[in-house]
Design brief:
- The complex is a heterodimer of chains A (about 200) and B (about 140).
- With about 200 residues, chain A is an alpha+beta fold.
- Chain A is about 15% helix and about 40% strand.
- Chain A has four helices and 14 strands.
- In chain A, strands 1, 9, 10, 11, 12, 13 and 14 form a seven-stranded mixed sheet that branches. Chain A has a seven-stranded mixed sheet with strand order 6-7-2-3-4-5-8.
- The radius of gyration of chain A is 17 Å and the shape is elongated.
- The two termini of chain A are about 20 Å apart.
- Chain B is built from two helices and 13 strands; from the N terminus they run αββββββαβββββββ.
- Chain B is elongated.
- Classes of the chains: A alpha+beta (about 200), B mainly beta (about 140).
- The interface between A and B is medium-sized, with 18 and 20 residues.
């Protein structure tokens, strides 16, 4: 399994070129149309008074993404935002803003809680995909799991509207409270779904 | 040889046997992975830069050069590489995986042709061949 990170941790991360220049920092994550993968990043300038940039960073151009920086080959890989949104088919939203705070419902109709963050699994190699593998939720009281945030695994594909996020009822069995054990929970959950269908 | 050992070494002209300066810093071009010039201090002429190709020998006790006329003014490509943004010492090192692996403490180079052999950090040294770029923010190395 790949590395797991919270989407909120990616924000502020510095974008550095091969030449060693810090050209930008991550502002927000743009999910691909189906919501299951990262499509691109929007960027903000570096420095105290720098605002959002008019260029974005498509996921395909990212060479490496680590704790300290996001590495790209050069500034040339950045594309204008308009182009970025045109390139992906279907309506693309700055998914994070839409997904956050929305309610997670199982297909059995139980509310699990509200999304407080998105968990992303990042592949090891360049060109690998960055999959949305789970949500961090503030659990609903009825769940009886206390108030601490819980992690909920997602199937490969998911349906999301601005309002509700649907997950299979079985996801409730794989709730986890830390990232360390979450990787295996996702694998177990996805293999169970695969076996059932 | 380490940068820290090379800095301060005197540069002597083989033409008239006089000292024409001391090494102030070494100018690296990450594109070729080599030291491409020496930036000199206390030169008798107005220029301060000695391109690596004009050095007669990089010896243990001194660097020899045919004459002080080979010392050129700092301009163009060299000036850019010698700028503050491109100095390598004390800069953070990032891998292409986006991890910071330390700070550049010293650089090991081959006195014969200027090739960067290694980058010394507080922990493991980094192979000089993996050097990709030296910029205002960081030194980037391949993993």
């Amino acid at each position: 399994m790949s590395t797991l990170v919270r989407a909120s941790e990616l924000a502020q991360r510095i974008v550095v070129t091969y030449a060693g220049e810090d050209v930008a920092q991550i502002k927000d994550v743009v999910y691909a149309a189906n919501g299951g993968q990262i499509g691109a990043f929007t960027l903000a300038g570096r420095g105290l008074f720098a605002g959002p940039l008019k260029v974005g960073l498509p996921w395909a151009a990212v060479v490496g993404i680590g704790q300290d920086a996001v590495i790209i080959e050069s500034e040339d890989v950045l594309v204008p935002l308009a182009e970025l949104f045109d390139a992906t088919d279907g309506p693309v939203s700055s998914g994070k803003a839409d997904i956050l705070k929305s309610e997670v419902l199982t297909d059995a109709g139980t509310a699990l809680g509200r999304v407080s963050d998105v968990i992303i699994g990042i592949g090891d190699t360049q060109g690998g995909q960055a999959d949305v593998v789970g949500y961090q939720i503030d659990p609903a009281e009825t769940l009886g799991r206390g108030k601490l945030p819980l992690l909920i695994p997602l199937p490969d594909t998911l349906s999301a509207s601005g309002e509700h996020l649907m997950v299979p009822a079985a996801a409730a069995n794989y709730l986890s409270d830390n990232l360390a054990g979450f990787g295996s929970a996702i694998d177990a959950f996805r293999s169970q779904l695969g076996g059932a269908s | 040889m380490l940068f820290s050992e090379a800095v301060g070494r005197k540069v002597v002209s083989t033409g008239n046997a006089s000292t024409v300066g001391h090494i102030g810093s070494l100018v690296i071009d990450p594109a070729v992975g080599k030291v491409v010039a020496l930036s000199l201090k206390k030169t008798p002429v107005t220029g301060t830069l000695l391109p690596w190709s004009d050095i007669t020998a990089f010896g243990v006790d001194a660097v020899t050069v045919a004459g002080e006329h080979l010392i050129v003014a700092e301009e163009g490509h060299f000036a850019e590489l010698n700028g503050k943004a491109h100095t390598i010492l004390k800069k953070r090192i990032l891998t292409t995986a986006g991890l910071q692996i330390g700070i550049v403490r010293d650089v090991d180079f081959d006195p014969a042709d200027g090739t960067i052999l290694g980058i010394l950090t507080d922990d493991q040294p980094v192979d000089g061949r993996s050097l990709l770029g030296v910029g205002s923010y960081a030194v980037v190395v391949k993993v």
